[in-house]
Amino acid sequence: MPNFEWKGKNRAGQAVSGALTADNKATIVSLLRKEQITVTSIREKGKEVAIPRLRGIGVGKKEISIFTRQFSVMIDAGLPLVQCLEVLGTQQENRTFQRILLQVRQDVEAGATLSEAMKKHPTIFDNLYSNMVAAGEAGGILDTILQRLATYIEKEVKLRSQVRSAMIYPAAVIVIAAAVVSIILWKVIPTFASLFSSLGAELPLPTRITIALSDMVLRFGWLMIILVIAIFLLLRQYYKTENGRHTIDGILLKLPILGVVFKKIAIARFTRTLGTLITSGVPILDGLEITAKTSGNAVVEDAIMTARKSIESGKAIADPLKGSDIFPPMVVQMISIGEQTGALDAMLNKIADFYEEEVDRAVEGLVSLLEPLMIAFLGAVIGGIVISMYLPIFDLINKF
């Protein structure tokens, strides 16, 4: 019979290890469980089976969503957990995700629970994912929990794409406008400037301003690029600080048009996440903490953690939410009704459905509003430059 080396933790939580001879790994795990030892790793002597741990770089939410949906179907069909992980791991095209799933399979085979194995890879399976899996394992409804998780991640992916839609379009137009204007000032305007200089014509104010801007681009263009990059890097570094996150996230929520969209996205994400966690059997205090960490906005996170403290002190969740500027009265009232009727999870999911539709409409309206505004802006800028260059020519034609 083969010899196996094992590592684990005893009842007191101390690390222990040893070697045993048995038919297979399952027998080793069974023997050690009788001694109240939780196995963390096991390998056959002379056969290294450990899979290197990698960070979750390159594994997208969409891939995790597809895996979760397939996993739930296989569990519902009655396939053993280890076999499901083996099949799903080997068929992954993403090599990083494949190795992580096979590592999870190995840890489960060694005696760890699925949630414990997933917690070792927080960059792939975050607190929300692993806690919901733990609740599913405890309640014997892992397939149902995985279905809810897949639905949640799919909706989260949709929300993220809507955020990108709200941000990318205006940013792209501004970048293109800046590039076009810079090229005109750098290449075209100097030709006109030398022509006007040779003619000795008196230039009108708009033309003088345009030529001055062109000179500035020619002399200090490289400095402007460095300055823009430096400002971007400083803002990114500032955002990593606690004060920076609160300041920038607060400004984003107060922006004239985008701020309304960001608030609706925050409400949809909060209600969907908390509703999914409560429905899955995760305690509300744990659910609020997980929801706060996955909110993506420091101001929203503070409002949620204030609500958590309120529940800890025996108060309702709706009271502190009422005092924040994030959650409108309708949302607070519906959450309050959900608490009073004992149907908080159902009410949160209804709010999430409503606000996800609101986000859809808001993003569509934002894009339709920004499109003519950006076209008008581009036309005004480029048209202004062209007109300023032709004004001296018109003056010269009139003189002749």
Please identify the oligomeric state. Answer: single chain
Distance between the termini: 108 Å
Rough outline: elongated
Radius of gyration: 30 Å
Low-pLDDT residue spans: 47-57
Alpha plus pi helix count: 15
* CATH arch. level architecture of the largest domain: Up-down Bundle
Total tally of structural domains: 3
* Class derived from helix and strand content: mainly alpha
Order of helices and strands: EEHEHHHHHHHHHHHHHH
CATH level 4 superfamily of the largest domain:
Type II secretion system (T2SS), domain F
Strand order of the largest sheet: 2-1-3
Largest sheet: 3 strands, antiparallel
Strand residue content = 5-15%
How many strands appear in the DSSP assignment?
Answer: 3
CATH class term of the largest domain: Mainly Alpha
Q: What name is given to the CATH topology of the largest domain?
A: Receptor-associated Protein
Helix content: over 70%
Mean of all residue-level pLDDT scores: 81
Give an overview in words.
The structure is a single chain. The chain is mainly α and 400 residues long. It has a 3-stranded antiparallel beta sheet, with helices on one face. The chain contains 15 helices and 3 strands. The N and C termini lie far apart (108 Å). It folds into 3 domains: 3-44; 61-154, Receptor-associated Protein; 165-400, Type II secretion system (T2SS), domain F (Receptor-associated Protein). Helix 7 (142-199) runs antiparallel to helix 10 and helix 8 (205-239) runs antiparallel to helix 15.
Topology:
Blueprint (H helix, E strand, L loop, with lengths): L2 E7 L5 E7 L3 H10 L3 E7 L16 H16 L4 H10 L4 H15 L4 H6 L7 H13 L2 H58 L5 H35 L2 H12 L4 H22 L4 H10 L4 H15 L5 H6 L5 H13 L2 H56 L1
Antiparallel strand pairs: 1-2, 1-3
Helix pairs in contact: 2-3, 2-7, 3-4, 6-7, 7-8, 7-10, 7-15, 8-9, 8-15, 10-11, 10-15, 11-12, 14-15
